[in-house]
């Protein structure tokens, strides 16, 4: 096991409330780059080279998120996710990029999928986004501004042009997720997976209903949430 936080901090004992991540990847070079990139964020990061090592770590530790190689040796990433990650967000990474590979990853309980090779900064951004949804990551100052929107992250409150807006918990999560991923388009299915979670068994119309409600509450600034016809929705602060 390679502990980046320990290496960076000279072996000092870290606060147990720190964000803990597990990176399980068969490729040592990829694993080390990811471990270092995540460790630079001040997170406690453990590494595993195969499915068995990952499972041993999962049995001993509580993690806020996992980054899993789809093709882990001995026990593959899909099996690890299905059997040990029911309540933990998972980002799958793989050199395979067929539609069925992605579908299998999401069906196993994954929340995101990155095709190798990828930019470490993009992975860090996706990790921050998912951690934000579960309340494990806060922007500096516990505040996020996106155009006229102002999120008070600790209080889970939002204002529009300095006027408070009352949102349901799910509306808040959806708006925050879109704002954190500005100008990136998400399908309804992706939004269900990322915001509602894999266990949600409702229809894609749930997303449409929440978007409609958000637009009504954000008037006249509802154009922040744009419809991308035939694809889904995106947020733009411009």
Describe the structure.
There is one protein chain. The protein is of the alpha/beta class and 238 residues long. It is built from nine helices and twelve strands. The protein is globular, with a radius of gyration of 18 Å.
Give the amount of beta strand, in percent. 15-25%
Derived from helix and strand composition plus strand pairing, the structural class reads alpha/beta
The order of strands across the largest sheet is: 2-1-3-4-5
H/E element order: HEHEHEHEHEHEEEEHEHHEE
Shape: globular
Q: Total strand count, please?
A: 12
Rg, Å, rounded? 18 Å
Determine the mean pLDDT.
Answer: 82
Fraction of residues in H or I helices: 25-40%
Number of helices: 9
Distance between the termini: 45 Å
Let me know the largest β-sheet.
Answer: 5 strands, parallel
List unreliable stretches of 5+ residues.
1-17
List the keywords.
single chain; 238 residues; five-stranded parallel β-sheet; 39% helix; 9 helices; alpha/beta
What is this structure's SSE topology?
Blueprint: H1 4-8, E1 20-24, H2 28-39, E2 44-48, H3 51-60, E3 65-69, H4 77-84, E4 90-94, H5 99-107, E5 112-115, H6 120-133, E6 143-146, E7 149-152, E8 157-160, E9 163-165, H7 169-180, E10 186-187, H8 188-196, H9 205-218, E11 225-228, E12 232-235
Helix pairs in contact: 2-6, 3-4, 6-7, 7-8, 7-9
């Amino acid at each position: 096991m390679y502990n980046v936080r320990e290496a960076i901090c000279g072996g000092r004992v870290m606060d147990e409330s720190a964000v803990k991540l597990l990176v399980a990847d068969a490729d040592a070079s990829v694993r080390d780059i990811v471990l270092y990139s995540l460790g630079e964020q001040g997170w406690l990061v453990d590494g595993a080279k195969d499915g068995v090592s990952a499972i041993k770590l999962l049995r001993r530790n509580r993690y806020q998120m996992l980054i899993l190689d789809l093709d882990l040796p001995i026990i593959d990433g899909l099996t690890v996710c299905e059997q040990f990650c029911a309540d933990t967000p998972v980002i799958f990474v793989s050199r395979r990029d067929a539609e069925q590979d992605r579908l299998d990853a999401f069906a196993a309980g994954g929340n995101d999928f990155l095709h190798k090779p990828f930019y470490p900064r993009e992975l860090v951004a996706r990790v921050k986004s998912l951690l934000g949804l579960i309340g494990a990551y806060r922007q500096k100052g516990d505040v996020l501004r996106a155009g006229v929107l102002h999120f008070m992250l600790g209080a889970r409150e939002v204002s529009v042009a300095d006027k408070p807006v009352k949102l349901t918990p799910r509306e808040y999560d959806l708006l925050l997720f879109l704002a954190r991923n500005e100008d990136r388009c998400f399908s309804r299915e992706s939004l269900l997976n990322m915001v509602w979670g894999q266990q949600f068994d409702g229809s894609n119309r749930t997303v449409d209903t929440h978007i409609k409600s958000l637009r009504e509450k954000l008037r006249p600034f509802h154009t922040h949430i744009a419809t991308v016809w035939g694809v889904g929705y995106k947020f733009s602060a411009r």
